[in-house]
């Protein structure tokens, strides 16, 4: 019986990351797609589950987590995940944690800006565009 509910939209890089991670590690979950473009995260039903109105988030038998890095750590500690994903050794774990914290404000932020620039340039220069 699957008890872990995973709320996501593949538009979100952290959602894609967690989805792939759970598939690769065979963590059973019930997929709960949320269509951000249609505003499903703004509905009363969604807000009652997650007042922050964001994805990804999980509900694991009443344990609700809303940040991708905390979700990753929780999954590694709660489910039988191979040590190469998130080491049990505290020093090696600290190195992984260091990167997880750093990438949020560096790799992801810069890649997001690059994508926005490319997508906006493409939209502006698309034949017949009104931008």
Automatic annotation (TrEMBL):
Cited Gene3D superfamilies: 1.20.1050.10, Glutaredoxin
Domain of life: Eukaryota
InterPro entries assigned to the protein according to its UniProt record, in alphabetical order: Glutathione-S-Trfase_C_sf, Glutathione_S-Trfase, Glutathione_S-Trfase_N, GST_N_Theta, GST_Theta, Thioredoxin-like_sf
An example molecular function term from Gene Ontology annotations: glutathione transferase activity
Biological processes, Gene Ontology terms: glutathione metabolic process
Cellular component GO terms held in the UniProt record: cytoplasm
Ranges for domain GST N-terminal: 2-83
Descriptive protein name: ACYPI007233 protein
Source species: Acyrthosiphon pisum (Pea aphid)
Organism lineage: Eukaryota, Metazoa, Ecdysozoa, Arthropoda, Hexapoda
